[in-house]
Design goal:
The protein is mainly alpha-helical and 136 residues long. It has five helices and no strands.
């Protein structure tokens, strides 16, 4: 049996973004992304990483001796910021559910924090290696 062509899912009525098409959808999505960056700026860890990135990203172009090295240096810095935003998403979603302690909530938050730690270790490792090669 065929569904009617004008049928709408519940998500269509809840989220008007789903009904947008083409450039209109892209422009609205860009606005939501900017709102997300503004919200991230309100988080101390993200703000610190963004300020550090403002110095490291230009330095990546000086330190990198090829486009691959530059991409790795800049990419690891951006990766830290991306993972930090995702960690904040996890924490916000858990906190929305409720303030009471639950072992699964703790586990999710701990794993998000571990992801940030691993991205930071990767970033530091790549930068130390590049500095060592360039300056030693």
């Amino acid at each position: 049996m065929q569904e009617p062509t004008n049928a709408h899912s519940p998500a269509d009525t809840v989220n008007p973004q789903k009904a947008r098409k083409g450039l209109n959808r892209v422009l609205h999505a860009g606005g939501y992304s900017l709102q997300g960056l503004r919200a991230g700026w309100g988080e101390t860890a993200f703000r610190q990483e963004a300020i550090l990135a403002a110095g490291l990203l230009p330095l990546a172009f000086w330190l990198g001796q090829s486009w691959v090295e530059t991409a790795l240096l800049a990419g690891t810095v951006l990766l830290v910021m991306i993972v930090e935003l995702l960690n904040t998403c996890i924490e916000s979603a858990i906190d929305r559910i409720g303030p009471e302690w639950h072992h699964l909530s703790k586990r999710a938050k701990d794993m998000g924090s571990a992801a940030v730690l691993l991205s930071l270790l990767l970033c530091v490792g790549v930068w130390v290696g590049a500095l060592w090669q360039r300056l030693a």
